[in-house]
Amino acid sequence: MASVRNYALIYVALVLLATGKFVFFHFDFFTYTMAVGGTLVLAAIKIGLIAGYFQHLKYEPRSVTYTMAVAAFMVVLLTLAAGYSIQ
Fold this sequence. Notes:
By secondary structure, this protein is an all-alpha fold. The chain has 3 helices and no strands.
């Protein structure tokens, strides 16, 4: 299992990644498209950290991790299909 130090470092990383979203949208250096793309990349990193450490997928057998990845992919596909059918 991970130590309290690891959890604290992950928490600090999550706070910094959340701050990145603020930076993307509140400084004029980034265009709107760059800000949205950067926010999506930061969100993917945050999802990986949360799933890996706080949901303990890092310490599970690889089959459980692959099952979760397939489930997440299916959720994305269903979301895209629902968005397409609404249009």
